Amino acid sequence: MTTRPPTSSGSWRDGDHPGRRKFVTIGDLDLESGDRLPDVVLAYETWGRLDETGDNAILVEHALTGDSHVVGPAGPGHPTAGWWPDLIGSGAPLDTDEFFVVAINVLGGCQGSTGPGARAADGRAWGSRFPRVTIRDQVNAEARLADELGIRTWHTVIGGSMGGMRTLEWVASFPDRVATAVALAASGYATAEQIGWSQAQILAIRNDPWFADGDYYDRAQGPEAGLGIARRIAHITYRSEPELHQRFDRDVRDEPAGDNGRPRYAVESYLDHHGGKLAGRFDANSYAVLSEAMNSHDITRGREGLREALAPFAGRLIVAPVDSDRLYPPRLSEELVEAKPGAELVTINSLVGHDGFLTEVEQVADLLRSVVVAPRRH
Ligand SMILES: CC(=O)SCCNC(=O)CCNC(=O)[C@H](O)C(C)(C)COP(=O)(O)OP(=O)(O)OC[C@H]1O[C@@H](n2cnc3c(N)ncnc32)[C@H](O)[C@@H]1OP(=O)(O)O
Ligand SMILES: N[C@@H](CCO)C(=O)O
């Protein structure tokens, strides 16, 4: 759930140590829908130092249930340890001796940024009143944070999945503010199948009797069961069929015993684990808002096609699909490379599927070392 920062304007922080959350008020945000979201706060974390030229900043964009805590242990404001361990630090692929690394909790999220669990001006959680936001709205908000930090052009923007969507939207919306973009396990638009999977997940949440039309924050219980089901559905799409087969096959867990003596398959217990874990650390409304934001993703909206959307970008574009990804199949990355002359395709090899961009940390590290960071030193 959202940890509400103190109400004020300008920047404030939990602490000055690297990786400690900071907050900035970016003011009112006009949304694509025509709504205006007032007094928007974004939570973010930084590592390293912005140099005098201001051109050494790297933006790391998190995926659906990630947050600004890219590296480091769990702690206040961070329900989990970092989701890309060891990628940021002195001598790490995103080397803080050289770069100023920024990660922002996405608009609509639940780890410090304005989202449905945050309090509106009347002191009540936004809940059902939280407006629809798009990936483009989220990137517009992030651009305002970049302005606040004095970052005109990102040296690199990198992200996977929903983070890859924001990376590509940065390229399309602010082509002169990104020098290099790395989009992992992503696509230029949400596909019919992705939208279909999202629908099932959103319905699981909204049909939980404890959802209360989204206004459950002052109740004894929220729609954790619905969120858990959503996560189970999603998690299957994040993994490959061969991986699930190899890991679990038809194995049965002997405890706890299944109801009515039916077997409890190991894969069920695994999905129960992931469903329960997410329900304990994430806000269901945020999950639905962010899923709808992902459904909105389409860098071609108002820009003709992929080619036209990417044409103004003069920087370096690297797209990195996971070869076994059935949710964002490699053809979606190949389309981007075909649409953008000079764009590079670097395939991540993994049995895992979509989550490969999180689990194959070494390959991501190699990618960052070889194609992103190294060229700056020459
Ligand atoms: C690491 C984080 O969660 S950081 C928080 C932010 N998170 C994100 O941004 C991404 C969200 N995380 C994820 O999507 C996933 O957790 C991933 C991609 C990181 C997981 O990748 P993997 O390393 O392949 O983990 P895997 O899917 O095997 O799950 C391991 C967990 O399942 C449990 N598990 C494995 N098999 C079973 C089973 N048959 N029954 C019950 N539990 C099982 C393990 O005990 C382990 O539990 P733990 O995570 O509580 O320690
Ligand atoms: N498993 C990741 C990837 C979603 O694309 C997450 O939960 O954020």
What does this structure look like?
Keywords: Acyltransferase, Amino-acid biosynthesis, Cytoplasm, Methionine biosynthesis, Transferase. This is Homoserine O-acetyltransferase. By secondary structure, the chain is an alpha/beta fold. The protein has 2 domains: 257 residues, Alpha/Beta hydrolase fold, catalytic domain (Rossmann fold, 3-Layer(aba) Sandwich); 99 residues, Rna Polymerase Sigma Factor, Chain: A (Orthogonal Bundle). Helix content is 33%, strand content 17%. It is built from 11 helices and 13 strands. The strands form 3 sheets. A 9-stranded mixed β-sheet has the order 1-2-3-7-4-8-9-12-13. A two-stranded parallel ribbon has the order 5-6. Strand 1 and strand 2 form a beta hairpin. Helix 3 runs antiparallel to helix 4 and helix 3 runs antiparallel to helix 7. The longest helix is centred in the C-terminal third of the chain and has 16 residues. The relative contact order is 0.14. The N terminus and C terminus are likely disordered. The site of L-homoserine has 9 residues, from loops.
